[in-house]
Amino acid sequence: VCSHTQVDFTNYKKPTLNRRIQKRMQALKLNMLQEYLDYLHANPAEVKILCQEFFINVTSFFRDPEAFQLIETKVIPAIIDSKEEGETIKVWIAACSTGEEAYSLAILFKEAPHRLGRHLDVKLFATDIDQQALQKASRGTYPASIIRKQVSEKRLERFFQKSGNKYTVSDEVRKMVIVAQHDLQKDPPFSKIDLITCRNMLIYLNPSLQH
Questions:
Q1: From the CB of residue 100, how many other CB atoms can be counted at a distance below 10 Å?
Q2: Which of 38, 60, 119, 185 is deepest in the core (most CB within 10 A)?
């Protein structure tokens, strides 16, 4: 258990943890594991840095387009059809990282009423264990150089505001997303959820914790 973050890494895959430890050792020009252990004892701040290394934040807007195409054309219409007019739709994005996936889903739900002719009340709960990633998700601001490759011009114009070399998600989309810290190992799950997405996390966990 990391004393600085209270995160239990016991059931994370050992090869992944070892690679991250090696990365920190290389950065510090340390060759032996014992040297790094001594360094950790002498420099408590390094413990927090190492914990942060264990959080692997890999995400993007509309990552794997075919998956989002399926959600847009099949999943969202089915959820809408199952709801009465004005009933709240709840979506949980577990391990949301820096928020791109949550905002991608919010955009799809924003576009859906126009296409299907119904008003929707949608709440998206974006959760992660990494507080630094959640801070970025809350801001909803991303580099223009990256976001232009991931989001269409039409969506950029409608759902984002440009400021200098960055884009910020518009208020109408951001207010749909509730960002919160949540540890899937110990915190209770959200209830009465219509759609749960959990991507790029299970591969880093041992089978017992995956289950």
A1: 26
A2: 60
